[in-house]
Amino acid sequence: MLPKSFKPRYLYDLTRIGSKNDGGYLIEKGSLKKSSYLVSIGVGGNADFEYEFSKKTRAKVIGFDDQVGLKYWIKYLLTQIYYLITRIYGFKKFLIEIGKFFTYLKLFTFNKNNMVYKEFIGSKNEGLKSLKEIIIENNIKELFFLKIDIEGNEYRIFDEIYSLINQVSGIAIEFHDVDLHIDKILAFINFIPLELVHIHGNNYSGKRNNIPLTLELTFSKNPENIGLKPAIPSKNDSPNNFKIKDLELEFFE
User: Of 78, 116, 135, 164, which has the fewest Cβ atoms less than 10 A away?
Assistant: First the structure.
């Protein structure tokens, strides 16, 4: 079970941005309207979230991922062709997967306003490019939305987030190894001056001791509640792995 602080206090006006399953997040609509930039740390090979966010808000997208580049996409495209030939995929599934490549091109290659860096973001103390350096280098002075999916390294950049939090309109963040870091996540929720508006368990990881091992949390700056009771799960929630049932979340006082 999860601490009560992990549960949003009210019902908020949420919209799904990105893929129907893995890669999509529920965002409070006010966050979208306030955001002039989207800073996405850990774009990966699925840029549906970034593309749709940009399309809905006209926000400039600045993405980071140290894995995705030319070699990644060559290997990816060859793999999808192999899956089609060997009938692991049907043609419909093949088109969906190939669509991810073209979405990435439309977002970062054909749109010169956006940019993606093949870099790993971490703590400046570790000799890595920091979140604060990103903001300064790109001369970001307006509010920006922050998306973080860096496979467990999110805990390394908490201090960077804290130092910029007054400029953040909202956050969509995936926490990994939740059972090991539950106190850190709790401190994050209680410390930042943003409201927790949504929580969802990633069913790819499952649970341990009734605690989801991976959680997706969304925060918003001064959101307007539309009801006194949060909806968990939300009507727009969808399992990351569509082949199995979504995770049920329980909370204790």
Answer: 78
Three-class SS state of 40? strand
- Please list, residue by residue across 95-104, b when 16 or more beta carbons sit within 10 angstroms of its beta carbon and e when fewer do: eebbebeebb
Contact 44, 22 (CB under 8 A): no
What gap in Å lies between CA 221 and CA 169, rounded to an integer?
5
Secondary structure of 222-248 in the HEC alphabet?
CCCEEECCCCCCCCCCCCCCCCCCCCC
Token code pair at residue 84: 């089609």
Taking the model in full, what pTM does it have?
0.92
User: Please, what sign has the CA dihedral across residues 170, 25, 215, 124?
Assistant: negative
Tell me which residue has tokens 């949420």. Answer: 14
Alpha-carbon distance values, 248 to 2, 178, 202 (Å): 11, 15, 10
- Tell me the per-residue pLDDT of 87-108, one tens digit each, with 9 for 90 and over: 998 999 999 999 999 999 999 9
